[in-house]
Amino acid sequence: MTSSQTLSKLIEKGVLISPEILDKEIDELLLNSLVEEYGETLDFLDEKVLRDFEEKQKSKDEHKIKIIKSYDKPPKKRTFQDFVSVFNLRFKNITQMLKYRQDLQGITSISRLVNKNNNERVTIIGMIQDKSLTKNNSLIIKLEDLTGTITAIVKETEKNKELYQTSNDLVLDEVIGVVGVIINKALFIEKIVFPDIPLSKELKKQKEEEYVVLLGDTHFGSKHFMKEEFTKFIHWINGELGNEEQRTIAQKTKYLILTGDIVEGVGIYPGQEADLEILDIKEQYQEAANWLKKIPQTIKLVVMSGNHDAGRLSEPQERPFKDMAEAIWAMPNITIVSNPAQVNVGAKDDFPGFDFLLYHGGSLIYYSENVPSIREAGGQKRSDLIMKFLLQRRHLAPTHKSTLYLPDSEEDFLLIDAVPDFFITGHIHRSSVSSYRNVTLVNASCWTETTDDQIKRGLEPLPARIPIINLKTRDVKIMNFLTKKSKEKEEEINKEVKELKKMT
Description:
- It is a single chain.
- The protein is an alpha/beta fold.
- It folds into 3 domains: 3-49, no CATH class; 65-73 and 203-503, Purple Acid Phosphatase, chain A, domain 2 (4-Layer Sandwich), CATH 3.60.21; 99-193, CATH 2.40.50.140.
- It is built from 15 helices and 19 strands.
- A 6-stranded mixed sheet has the order 3-13-14-15-17-16, covered by helices on one side.
- Strand 13 (341-345) and strand 14 (354-359) form a beta hairpin.
- The radius of gyration is 27 Å and the shape is globular.
- The relative contact order is 0.12.
């Protein structure tokens, strides 16, 4: 239908149309979209109504969220062979990343090393099968590829202090490149090369000043949900709270990402019933929707699954079950993705947008405890170091037992194949910001007070904080919504956690 035909139809229906509209050449698609959206509620049409609708459509187009990767495969029976296949697939994928590295020239398969002479320098790519320490502190690392295995050795000397530290941080099942010398059929390591992020990664910035707000672990439905603090956040995001700069940021916020654990869930840990305000999982999601609807509809929401949400625990976690999380699925401004997922935001005709790698963070605690340099630097308090560690390995959970996962013989969904602009996590209830090779690393906070279960596990949360990303400058600020009462309680809990750590 042409624009003139559409206008004639509107006049027949009794819609008042201003003379300048009748004399003006109007975009046919725009007019038809306006009529379709407003329907029977349209009773007047002038240039202002048309212009406002055009701006609204433009805003929609400019602030689209594109899902690059979100797990949605139907469930099927898994066998032992699926685990074998996923490790073979991972080895092949990471080998492809490593084989073109300048410091890995002349790569040899492990099976051919038996023919090498003593003191001959070799280069291999291997997966770590085992790691141990001798009485004189030498590291023994068993490496394997698709052709065989070899024992590799790193001695602790003053000369190779850095290499020894790097080797000490190696974890089982990660894939690395190794340069070394063959002596008595063993490989003495001289250099370790990780798949890592390229140094040439571009630091993308957009022209317009727009913001992304990160919410972590809201746990709607918990008795410990920080209602007062979250209410302050809602007032701020609506431009009703804060100084002039903070209100401007709220006004220019175009996206909000919630990094999982939307609700408290049911049956997640022993005795959880005592921590529940809302016992029914459906009602928890209804409560979540009630709160999220208070965020301006102009802001696009991206919400992902976490280990407390309605769905399987193994990663990749599918999106929260529709029949249980119906209330949030029905929201018009929300995009729901799996854990992990990749999304693109801010793409325009002249700009490719920003790629966000989203991961709730099931493996973070494992690496905080099992990588010596991270453990000694603060463990769970150093999510920045954990995230850097995972980027260097190009995998979200390189060790078999670091997280519960679902093997897929066709795709290793936890592989970091595409290099993101932003790497966003949650799960450990602390906020942190850092950067590694032009990738911005952010761990979101949480909106629940510290529970007895968290104290037992030695967690020291930093709740009620929101990281805010400026897409023009790539700066990240953290706003703190803690009330005075909550701050005092937080200090008491942190003291209690420290005392427990001393006892253990």
